[in-house]
Amino acid sequence: MIQEEINLNGVTISSAVPACSQLTLLDVGKQIHCYVLKNGDLIGNSFVDSSLVDMYCNCQQVESGHRVFYNALKRSIGIWNAMLAGYTQNGFFTKALMLFIEMMEFSGLSPNPTTVASIFLVWVHCEAFTLKEVIHGYVLNWDFQMKNTLKMH
């Protein structure tokens, strides 16, 4: 598409970056990231940002994922989840815990099932995590609310 001079959009980028991630083609992923930075229309796209965080973390470049996360213009639940998963997958459980606390206190977002799945690993590996009962209660309440919502429809 680039050779044909077709402008790539957020859907194209956020579809191509996971392929780099799965195949651990970090150099190609970095080239795509450069393309994003050169195209102002793509900067701030939450799907693109989330896929870049995921790609860097899957390629064990957590610091690069961290930079994308903190430079994101808008932090959707997807980018929070990508960074949380990146930290836990790479064994940075304390950083994941701190990020989760930051998300809960400052983002105005509520955890979703993906968030909770990442935090479960923190439960197992981080003795300092004293919010286990709080998260467990949240999961039970969320599950109860979802079941009631599904029954109404």
UniProtKB/TrEMBL annotation:
GO BP: RNA modification
Keywords annotated in UniProt: Repeat
PPR repeats: 76-111
Alphabetical list of InterPro entries matching this protein: PPR_At4g14850-like_plant, PPR_rpt, TPR-like_helical_dom_sf
Pfam families documented for this protein: PPR (PF01535)
Keyword Disulfide bond: no
GO MF: RNA binding
Protein name from the UniProt record: Pentatricopeptide repeat-containing protein
Species for this entry: Solanum bulbocastanum (Wild potato)
